[in-house]
Amino acid sequence: MKKRVLSGIRATGRLHLGNYLGAVKGMLALQDNPSYETFYMVADVHTLTTPYNIEELRKNRREVMVDYLAAGLDPQKSVLFQQSEVNAHIELAFYFSSVTTIAKMQHLPTFKDKVKQYPEHATMALLNYPILMAADILIYKAGLVPVGIDQEPHLEVTREIARRMNQEYGTDFPEPKRFATKGEYIPSLTGEGKMSKSVEGSYINLTDDLETIRKKVRSVPTATEAGGEKSSGLQALFSFLQVVAPTQVQHFEQSFQQGTLQFVELKDTIAEAIYAELKPLQEKRKELEANPAYVDQVIAQGAQKACEVAALTVKEVRGKMGLL
To answer: What is its EC number (predicted)?
Structure first.
């Protein structure tokens, strides 16, 4: 039997380079492998866990779906859907909350980080984020999840919930593992942390043209001299180089060691490699924007397929828990 895969990206804006290299590339690899059955969602419900604009959410969840399609996710090979269209996710998350302690959720580093970021928005939805993520994955009985390494604590929660449900109620949930990609951690253009839509000036949009990409990459802070230790910004640049132009790494490493590294040459090489990767996606995106009816059809059909599978799992859980 094929192994199930589930992944999703929050609907907080169009996808950026970090999303593409860190998640979508892995999603594509699994979609094209006949051993897997792939479910890929736009995580619009997860967007509600932090402050958001209603109209932007309505727009962004569609933009993410268009980005999925432009990147090569194929509705003939994968189930592409919006999370909010499958109400069973919310129902299963509540059942899972009955085997998950408040203390466990409060001690997750991701929860603590978000509370610091949004001290006035420490809601139950934010606390329950990992439980909903577990429901997203286990409702399809997915055994593999292509996400970044920062999501590993949430995946461990998912595995714990699967074990508790299996032990207490006799369900047969798998304990999912993370599918890693070579670009799973894409650094911020600021030189600190990872690329994120929530940090202005840290990311490259999939829709950016060459000049915009070049300008953004050139803005990455670097040391004034090539000698000594690499600055955080220079380390970020070499991380980019390793992912988008690996054949160039040795050349620039030698230049750095010899003290002859030209920062502009390094940055422009990276910018051109990034644009070469994104140009086909941008051309496909223009075609999709000109055909909104097709996008509507993909969303509707994906929701129907996802609902059919999700309903079976929820019915099974309700029966095991004594609700049927």
So the answer is: 6.1.1.2
**Residue 177 belongs to what H/E stretch?**
strand 177-178
Residue 264, C-beta contacts closer than 8 angstroms, at least 6 positions apart: 218
pTM of the entire structure? Answer: 0.89
Domain region containing 172: 3-184+292-320
Residue 211 and residue 199 in contact, taking contact as beta carbons nearer than 8 Å: no
48 and 141 in a single domain? The answer is yes
Q: Which two tokens stand for residue 43?
A: 């995580």
**Bridge partners for 37 per DSSP:** 4
Alpha-carbon separation of residue 138 from 6, 141, 158, 165, 172 (angstroms) = 9, 4, 8, 11, 10
Cα dihedral 285→287→289→290 (10° resolution): 170
In percent, the amount of the chain with pLDDT more than 90 equals: 72
CATH at residue 250:
1.10.240.10
Q: What is the mean pLDDT of the chain?
A: 92
CA 228 to chain centre: 35
Whether residues 268 and 296 share a domain: the answer is no
The helix/strand/coil state of 227 is coil
